[in-house]
Design brief:
The chain is of the alpha+beta class. About 25% of the residues lie in helices and about 35% in strands. The protein is elongated and about 70 Å long.
Length: about 240
């Protein structure tokens, strides 16, 4: 831990436990603490920083709640992957991951091309008897499942295949097909995982999930795709900038 240059300022108004938690969080995000790396015991860290053990435990508890650390019986406290952070922009998860230097992997769980269900036909504003692509994908990063994504895409768009979806983001394929995505309506919420979702995402049933529903349209106002995504709550967060008007 000394290599992290972790220090506390007893004259600062910031609580000591928060200073420690912020220092460790910074070390995780900038790579000084790698995924899977084991930390010293709370007792040893408290002694190094000349802090009480309850103060150190409070700092570690906060990092565990954030999903940055995990406690394992017989192993100790380890670093887990930092959360995926996304701004509220019209980008895909694939784009955001690659843009942040991560390498996403995609497994196509199911793929079909057929008549649109009434609700999807209405959402995409399609004529009667229109067809759509219906795709369910599992997105992982660093070998860990992150998101379960279900999408419906207008069936007239060419170049949508399972093989291409495994190595490209959906929005990249749509752009390659000449679609200029311009605006989207999006709803973000929360739920808990059922047994199937938990099995695919590598969590226990009942774990917290971030939900996202989005319908994207092109610059002519034509709805192109709609989707329902589930993201692991311990690995995923949205960043929003608020402006007073």
């Amino acid at each position: 831990m000394p290599s992290l240059d972790l220090r506390v300022d007893r004259n600062s108004p910031v609580p000591l436990y928060r200073q420690v938690a912020s220092g460790i969080e910074a070390a995780i995000h900038d790579g000084r603490l790698a995924r899977g790396q084991r930390l010293e015991s709370e007792l040893a860290l408290a002694a190094t920083l000349r802090l009480s053990r309850p103060t150190m435990r409070q700092a570690m508890d906060e990092l565990v709640r954030q999903g940055l650390l995990v406690r394992k019986r017989g192993v100790g406290t380890q670093v887990v992957a930092g959360p995926i952070r996304r701004a509220i922009d019209l980008t895909s998860l694939f784009d955001d991951l690659t843009g942040s230097g991560r390498t996403p992997a995609t497994e196509v769980i199911s793929f079909s091309h057929g008549p649109a269900a009434p609700q999807i036909q209405d959402t995409l504003q399609l004529p009667p008897r229109s067809s759509v692509y219906h795709v369910i994908r599992l997105r992982s990063v660093g070998g860990e499942p992150l998101s379960l994504m279900e999408n419906w895409i207008a069936g007239t768009i060419p170049g949508i295949t399972p093989a291409l979806l495994e190595v490209n983001g959906l929005y990249g394929l749509l752009r390659g097909a000449g679609m200029n995505l311009r605006v989207a309506s999006q709803s973000i919420g929360a739920t808990t995982s059922d047994a199937r979702q938990a099995g695919l995402l590598g969590v226990t049933p009942g774990s917290a999930l971030v939900t996202m529903q989005r319908t994207a349209s092109d610059d002519n106002g034509r709805a192109i795709e709609t989707g329902r995504h589930l993201h692991r709550g311990d690995s995923y967060t949205f960043d929003v900038t608020l402006v007073q008007r």
